[in-house]
Amino acid sequence: MEGINWAVPENMQQADIEKFVLWSLDHTGWYPQLWFPEVRRERINFPDGPTDADIHAALFELIRKGSVTLSRADGVAISTNDFRLEILEETQADGQPPFNLDLEESVHQKLHDAVDRSKVLRRGHFELFALGDEFDVNTYLLSATLDFDNVWHRREGGRPTSGVGKRLGDGAVIPLAEQERIAVEYLSANRDPLRELAKFPGVTTFNLGLQYNVEPREGLRGFCMGPSPSLMWHALDVGVHPTFYVVLKRPGEVDHGFSLEAFLEGW
């Protein structure tokens, strides 16, 4: 399983923390120095949010319940009655752990079933968005006449900008020519409010993203591209910058995303 940049829910519950612990153990294996005394989140693909104490408590509970099994290096299982959290911090002279941690087989299967259920076709790039680190989104929305599918706010230690986004379709499946037609219609129909958004205080980036899907073929060395004259005229008219996301898709290749909600539900 590949690493994932989690966008975790706030105030994670104990059961959810345990699921992430299982994911991390299965993803990287057991290395005490990555868990103690501090959790090396970037090394085990663990999300921000829970404290180290929360994560250690979840690991302890998983072992206590038998969801994670503990055995010595020689394969001899250790009874949960003899277990104490401190032994997980122990290492041998060569730095290797004297104990192995493994997912119990039925838990291992549940984890992989949850991961499989969570695979979703990745949404393509076809969106208009405006952002800026000083963009006051709440003030803008008080008078905005446009509808948005995505609104985010700058926060310390999190997103560096605030912004709004309007999805115009799925660039993974809509041909580029059709994307341009849809974009021109949207820009034309919303000319004045889009001009206002482009000039709103704090907006430093105002982009129209389109996706161009290319199946590499023998002899292809490169290509150039740009917006159609009609799209360029309307983009200049409202002040938006067209950006093309080129995606190389090999025949039969399926691009999967990941649904965090589906991963956390139902197991």
Keywords, separated by commas or semicolons:
single chain; 267 residues; five-stranded mixed beta sheet; 9 helices
Kindly state the number of beta strands: 9
User: What sequence of helices (H) and strands (E) makes up the elements?
Assistant: HHHEEHEEHEEHHEHEEH
What oligomeric arrangement do these chains adopt?
A: single chain
Whole-angstrom Rg: 25 Å
* Count of separate structural domains: 2
User: What percent of residues are in strands?
Assistant: 15-25%
- Give the helix tally: 9
Distance between the termini: 18 Å
How would you sum up the major sheet? 5 strands, mixed
Helix content: 25-40%
Mean pLDDT: 85
Shape: elongated
Sheet with the most strands: spatial strand order = 5-6-4-7-8
Low-pLDDT ranges: none
Q: Which structural class should the secondary elements be placed in?
A: alpha+beta
Structure explained in plain terms:
The structure is a single chain. The chain is of the alpha+beta class. The protein has two domains: 14-117; 122-257, no CATH class. It is 34% helix and 18% strand. The chain contains nine helices and nine strands. The chain has helices spanning 14-28, 41-44, 52-65, 105-117, 137-143, 176-189, 191-199, 229-238, 260-264; strands spanning 68-72, 99-103, 119-121, 127-132, 150-152, 162-167, 205-214, 241-248, 256-258. Strands 5-6-4-7-8 form a five-stranded mixed sheet, with helices on one face. A two-stranded antiparallel sheet has the order 1-2. It has a two-stranded antiparallel ribbon with strand order 3-9. Helix 8 links the parallel strand 7 (205-214) and strand 8. Helix 1 packs across helix 3 and helix 6 runs parallel beside helix 8. It is elongated, with a radius of gyration of 25 Å.
